[in-house]
Amino acid sequence: MDEELTLLLILHTFAALCFLLYILISLYGSKSKVIPPSSRALIVIAHPDDEVMFFGPTIANLTRDHEMNVHLLVLSRGNFRGEGNLRKMELYKAAEALSISKDNITLLNYTKLQDNPKARWSEELVADIIYQYVESQDIGVILSFDRFGVSGHKNHSSIYNALLLLTSEERSQSFRSNNTRILVLNSVNILRKYSGVFDLPMSYALSPISFIASPKDWINIQKAMMCYGSQYVWFRKIYMIFSRYILINTYDILK
């Protein structure tokens, strides 16, 4: 009985500390000094709704605290189930809820870049698209997926491979030598992925760059996801409640 009470006390203490840490970070800011203020940020995603389900805390912080001009490059319409046109309209509504201007959204529909969880996209093609966007829009920082793509979706990891290619010896010297930062979103194991606020201490301690959604941000992210009527099914509703990606984004520096 004493052991059970001790364990219960430890769990309650840990939970209280997690919520206290969350409140403090929400009030005093995230670890994101590596990003130059007042510059242009480009978030590169594979499908409409990726910006909400994975990058919500990042977008909330960049548009609010950093006063950054946030651009969204969406490489496909998410037409795997024939809902591409609908998801296009949903994207604009969700982006508005996240304070991203419609003028800053580029949504592609290339034949070679169609939504398919089992298909790898051409790294060369994706790299060229990103390079041209960065050069034309004077982008200061690129944010996208890491090699595991959070969910294991091959389209997600294809973007990482393209970013890796951009930093390689074979690519243009001008891109490798400029000041554009590349940050990749950390993928975590399934236990951490669905532990919500309880993953906060580990995430904040281990990651050099993090963005935390405030309670108001969290509500706005939920509202943005509700704009995706075609995608807002029961298992995504559960995801939106428990996923740590709705509360915290942590990054590694690729460049």
UniProtKB/TrEMBL annotation:
A cellular component term, taken from the record's GO annotations: endoplasmic reticulum
Pfam hit, one: PIG-L
Record-given protein name: N-acetylglucosaminylphosphatidylinositol deacetylase
One GO MF term: N-acetylglucosaminylphosphatidylinositol deacetylase activity
Residues spanning the membrane: 6-28
Key words, A-Z: Membrane, Transmembrane, Transmembrane helix
Keyword Mitochondrion applies: no
One of the GO BP terms on file: GPI anchor biosynthetic process
Gene: PIGL
Keyword Kinase attributed: no
EC number of the protein: 3.5.1.89
Similarity comment: family membership: Belongs to the PIGL family.
Signal peptide span: none
